[in-house]
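Figure 2 data, in text form.
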Amino acid sequence: MSALISRLNASDPDFQAQLKTLLHVDAAQDDSIEAATAGILANVREHGDAALLDYTRQFDRVDAKTVAELEIDPAVWQQALNNLPLDQRKALEAAADRVRQYHLKQRQESWSYVEADGTRLGQQITPLDRAGLYVPGGKAAYPSSVLMNAIPAKVAGVSVLTMVTPTPDGTQNPLVLAAAAISGVDRIYAIGGAQAVGALAYGTETITAVDKIVGPGNAYVAAAKRRVFGVVGIDMIAGPSEILIICDGQTPADWIAMDLFSQAEHDELAQAILLCPDADYLDAVAASIARLLPTMPRATIIATSLKNRGALIKVASLEEACEISNQIAPEHLEVSVVDPEALLPLLRHAGAIFMGRHSSESLGDYCAGPNHVLPTSRTARFSSPLGVYDFQKRSSIIHVSSAGAQTMGAIADTLAMGEGLQAHAQSARYRMQDQSGND
């Protein structure tokens, strides 16, 4: 059993060094991928539709004469939805409704206040005009990701949401198209890879440039998003999936083992960690892992993930577990204890916190309601889940009254002169000299 997953003890003198090694992921960028991506983006920026058609022919083996031919008609999305088995359609619609209801709570409204002298200050909240959604195609197709990215954008009020998804050999994924129909996507193009990111960022003769690009993709897509950031906004550069579980030793061991599997099955670099003060319980979970692993269709991936990046960690207390969790800042954090509310104030850094024994991370992936696009690789220390706020922007409102110009003008005059910016100072003085009272 010990060979399947590492066993650590937080009281060991070298624990911090062991933890650092466990958490380390080689973030070195592949030079060949970076070079290829740079070339693709430059080509799309310069040649537009022609480059898109060339790359789609080369990578997806789809020979189209125009990019307009690569747009998927909304009637096709609706037909995909209509053709779904009833249980799948109901599940997709129920998940979409829960995601929509949760994100409606996130909408921010404009606000302002008026000072005693009549000056009004505030903030105007407006949606992005256009957003782009990248959706992987082929076998790696996740309709849940369509819901999680598209619904917040439409709740925010984004006018045009353009989805791009590759269709290798012309194969369209019906679940993805059905999810788009439910989520309010406006246009879909059958293009993928770095070239699709370039088209969304720079625009082509057919595809209008967007303001922000969201959605997961392969290494080329991630590299492209990094490169176009600044021209457009992006959601995040996601790393391997992660789960950290804090358990008091009273949850059925099979439940916890399967929760660890639920992240480990994503890929070999995914990370699954359990923190518990009960050594006997860690033994029980290790036994569950050994017994259940052979029954899993993705057993090889799970085994590699657990062996290389997984751990069962003995802690002195649940409080110490919270301290270690904050250090790790996991993407998904399960608090599987008798009183999770008591620990919540101690938990500062996590993408999503699943409270109690029945709150499995898998429910958050599909239908709980909160977004499953979460910060990874310790970025939860300073970033948040994808939400409506990612598709809204804030403009400061400053309406200074004549009286306010006298008070603030004197302050600005003094500070501007201190910085040697005479035009700033004079600009403020002009308003101080105007006693008309006209605002």
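Caption note: Residues 384 and 437 are 45 Å apart (CA to CA).
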